[in-house]
């Protein structure tokens, strides 16, 4: 059965909502990444029939339209990324796989388009609290917690030993007695006063150099290093994660819009964090352009 473009978007959105409700209902109101949509939640290979697409290109085109805000189903939090996707869709031959460039960008569901009938027949996964034993009682707020009784203190005098036992009766055999040498045993006596004066006269004098010059050199080196570090600008003009413009000033380590580390970049295929000098993704093996 063939569906029109708007129906495909509605079916895509419904499949996404049902998967989120079943796996992580918190994401109905909180953001998740673009990569989670096409990798985990509604990948093409398992949901193409539910979405109503026959080819991967149709799936990619529908996902790109959702990320652009068509139908008001999803909201891509990066305005720059959303604008770039819209411009790509308006081009004569759009690159439908462009959504992979924004794999790590945050996206959220529009609550105005969530209906109760979408959740029919779907059971959310049990939470961690369901695994507790029913016999365990969690105190309410304000109640004093139940504390286990402390072990009783025993006085060694209360411990009754066997009658007739005397430690003096223990045999000496099998036990080694520890002999403690007097303090200072084995040390050579001090030299006499005359010999001490002779040794003092033969001592080589130690020259104490003025270290102020060396300290100044070290401080200058540290100051130059800190100045050089402060002059470092971010490696990108735009955030590699959300595409927003980065402030071109010293010591920019994180994007002020999405909070991502701009000293790293996302894999265009899976969104894995990669260092700037890596040529291949460590998670999926995709070659990364330098």
Please give a structural write-up.
By secondary structure, this protein is mainly alpha-helical. Among the domains are: 5-119, no CATH class; 227-290, no CATH class. The chain contains seven helices and five strands. The strands form two sheets. It has a three-stranded antiparallel beta sheet. Strand 4 (264-266) and strand 5 (273-275) form a beta hairpin. Helix 1 (5-23) crosses helix 4. The longest helix is centred in the N-terminal third of the chain and has 19 residues, at 5-23. The two termini are 44 Å apart.
Biggest sheet: strands side by side, in what order?
Answer: 1-3-2
Helix content: 25-40%
Number of DSSP helical runs: 7
- Number of strand elements: 5
Structural class: mainly alpha
The biggest beta sheet is recorded as: 3 strands, antiparallel
- The percentage of residues in β strands lies in 5-15%
Distance between the termini: 44 Å
Defining traits:
extended, 290 residues, single chain, mainly alpha
List the helices and strands and how they pair.
Blueprint: H1 5-23, E1 32-33, H2 34-41, H3 44-51, H4 56-67, E2 74-76, H5 79-90, E3 106-109, H6 193-202, H7 212-230, E4 264-266, E5 273-275
Antiparallel strand pairs: 1-3, 2-3, 4-5
Helix pairs in contact: 1-4
Briefly, what is this?
It is built from seven helices and five strands, in the order αβαααβαβααββ. By secondary structure, it is mostly helical. Among the domains are: 5-119, no CATH class; 227-290, no CATH class.
């Amino acid at each position: 059965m063939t569906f029109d473009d708007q129906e495909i978007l509605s079916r895509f959105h419904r499949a996404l909502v049902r998967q989120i409700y079943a796996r992580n209902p918190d994401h109905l109101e909180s953001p998740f990444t673009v990569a989670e949509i096409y990798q985990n939640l509604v990948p093409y290979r398992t949901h193409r029939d539910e979405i109503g697409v026959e080819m991967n290109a149709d799936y990619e085109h529908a996902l790109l339209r959702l990320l652009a805000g068509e139908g008001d189903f999803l909201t891509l939090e990066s305005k720059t990324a959303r604008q770039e996707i819209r411009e790509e869709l308006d081009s004569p031959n759009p690159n439908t796989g462009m959504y992979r460039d924004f794999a790590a960008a945050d996206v959220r569901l529009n609550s105005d388009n969530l209906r109760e009938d979408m959740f029919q027949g779907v059971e959310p996964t049990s939470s961690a609290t369901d695994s507790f034993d029913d016999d365990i009682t969690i105190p309410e707020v304000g109640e004093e917690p139940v504390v286990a009784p402390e072990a009783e203190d025993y006085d060694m005098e209360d411990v009754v030993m066997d009658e007739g036992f005397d430690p003096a009766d223990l045999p000496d055999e099998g036990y080694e007695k520890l002999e403690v040498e007097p303090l200072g045993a084995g040390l050579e006596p001090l030299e006499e006063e005359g010999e001490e004066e002779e040794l003092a006269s033969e001592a080589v004098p130690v020259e104490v150099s003025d270290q102020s010059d060396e300290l100044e050199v070290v401080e200058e080196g540290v100051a130059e290093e800190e100045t050089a570090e402060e002059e470092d600008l971010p490696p990108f003009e735009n955030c590699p994660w959300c595409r927003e413009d980065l402030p071109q000033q010293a010591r920019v380590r994180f994007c002020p819009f999405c909070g991502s580390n701009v000293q790293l970049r996302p894999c265009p295929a899976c969104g894995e964090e990669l260092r700037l000098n890596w040529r291949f993704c460590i998670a999926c093996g995709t070659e990364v352009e330098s």
